[in-house]
Amino acid sequence: MAGVKDIARSCGVSAATVSRVLNADPTLSVTESVRVAIEAEAERIGYKTPRQRRAAMLSAMLILSPLDKPGFEEKLLAYLDPIARAAGISLTLSLEKDLDGIIAVGEFSQEEIDYFHSLTANLLLINNLGSDYSYDSIMVDYPNAEKQVLDYFLAASITRIGYIGGIFNRRTAVIGKRRAAEFKALLERENLYRDEWFRLGRMDEESGYTLVMEMSEIPSGIFVSDPETARGVLKALEERAADPEVIIYNNFFPLERSRGIELRIFTPDLWRTALKMVKEKAKCEREQGLCVFSPARLLINNASLKQGE
């Protein structure tokens, strides 16, 4: 039967590291890519820790507010599945009998929240505080996220700061507009805003590329609104032989590039906290509803353009 040593060999780490990751050792410091690889390999070969084998797997439904990007829910579920199973929870996108909990991400009406609550008493909302403390909620501290970006630039003595943002219109909301407005307000407060360095377009690679190529002068630091726009931004910067410090706003998935600092909004720790909260309520270890505020994380290790030269 495949076990810890097989996972260690496949992932190129020690058996002790595998054991500590799968047992959620809080004192262990490993990169997210290593942790995800270990959890995914354990799931692939069907390995369970002794603690997981003793515990029955719980079932929770993942619900996202309406999106216009086909396949996004499935991609997020695939990313979260090994993290959830390591916590003893089976995630699904479909309504099943005997649900142990629901994790609902995004903005929902009170009517929708009441419906979710009718399906299970164990409801957790992410980025929707609601009005009823009988369920749990996790709120991302968005204003602090953008302040981290500005603080990083200023600490690096970068005051020539630009913003390249994508705007995405979906059925229920406009994505990207608020983050652009908030960063503009931060720059204006510090008297650092320059109109020629603040560019808005579509949320895609082509738009990011065009916006950079149209700039007469490249600022020393650029905050990019999303990974799709960032692909075009980085391509254009390379063609122009420009090397500003770049920070990329990233909601859900690890960046698939080595250039650019990542501002991760939905961190792995946020998801682990959400799963832990669902499990606590499902196992009747806690009755009181909780509201947790989660900060974004600026991932600067080996991601900086300057460090990558």
Describe this structure in words.
- Residues 302-309 have low confidence and may be disordered.
- The N and C termini lie far apart (45 Å).
- The chain is α/β, with parallel strands linked by helices.
- The chain has 11 helices and 13 strands.
- Helix 1 packs across helix 2.
- It is globular and about 60 Å long.
Overall helicity: 40-55%
Q: Low-confidence parts, pLDDT < 50 over ≥5 residues?
A: 302-309
User: How would you classify the helix and strand content by structural class?
Assistant: alpha/beta
- Biggest beta sheet attributes: 7 strands, mixed
Strand content: 15-25%
Topology summary:
Blueprint: H1 4-11, H2 15-22, H3 32-45, H4 50-54, E1 58-64, H5 72-86, E2 89-92, E3 101-105, H6 110-119, E4 123-126, E5 136-141, H7 142-155, E6 161-169, E7 174-175, H8 177-189, E8 198-202, H9 205-213, E9 221-224, H10 227-239, E10 245-250, E11 261-264, H11 268-282, E12 291-295, E13 297-299
